[in-house]
Amino acid sequence: MTQRLKTIVCVLILLAGMSAKADVITLRSGQRVEGSILVQNADILIVKTSSGARFQYPIAEVVKIDTSVVKQDTVVISPTERKVKPVAIRLSVDGGGAFVPNHETGGGLAVDAAIGTRDLAGKGIFLGGSVGYFGAYTESGHHFIPLQAVVGISLGARVEVPELMIGLGYGFGTGKSQGGVAATLRLIWSLYSNASTKLLLGASLRFQQGDRNQVETIDGVAYSRNAGAVYLLTGVSMALQF
């Protein structure tokens, strides 16, 4: 190789190094990926690493993108963070069978509106409170207004893993019904997710203390009274978060 050719190769290598660009993507799991961003939109991010491999990530799993420009051994980093609202609203509907163990069976419906954190501690945790309606349509209808503290925890770093959502509070009885402790347990999967919206579907189990009208016959005379009862609702749950 002639001296002139060597000089040209050295200049080309120097210019390539001066203009080298690497993107560092930080995921919700804590993993950092270095490479070049090929596609970025509201739903997905596709990255090509230095080895030539391509990886695709849901945009909801991306916490931060750092764009690094290397110039003569000096690294200038300009971070670009996703602007996501810190507060989320989640609307949930539960429907299925309602039971008063050993006494009554029927249908049940529950609706909740919750407000809480969208991504607490960068772990995708939903923490807040909810107000809703719980109806047990058994032999006699029973209706409650539950107020609950709720927490939703993702069971893994990827979007497709389920989320466990737990609620605990008090359900106020309507009419002559007495209320009591209210609890909710949901296991839900994300059907659709982007930076601001989630659609979730899964199963739910709800618990509500209350009372039920109980008729007893003594010496041929019927007596009616309210007795303590527990209402269970189990079935399908659907939620929309925005």
Strand and helix layout:
Blueprint: H1 3-18, E1 21-27, E2 32-40, E3 44-48, E4 54-58, E5 62-71, E6 74-81, E7 87-100, E8 104-117, E9 126-137, E10 141-154, E11 163-173, E12 180-193, E13 198-218, E14 221-241
Antiparallel strand pairs: 1-2, 1-5, 2-3, 3-4, 5-6, 7-8, 7-14, 8-9, 9-10, 10-11, 11-12, 12-13, 13-14
Features:
2 domains; 14 strands; 242 residues; 1 helix; 7% helix; SH3 type barrels; mainly beta; eight-stranded antiparallel β-barrel; rod-shaped
Broad structural category? mainly beta
- Mean pLDDT across all residues, rounded? 80
User: Helix tally?
Assistant: 1
**SS strand fraction:** over 45%
Percent helix range? under 10%
> Tally of extended strands?
14
The total domain count is 2
Class of the largest domain, according to the CATH hierarchy? Mainly Beta
The gross shape turns out to be rod-shaped
Quaternary organization: single chain
What CATH architecture label of the largest domain applies? Beta Barrel
Biggest sheet, in brief?
Answer: 8 strands, antiparallel, barrel
Unreliable stretches, pLDDT < 50, 5 or more residues?
A: 14-19, 69-82
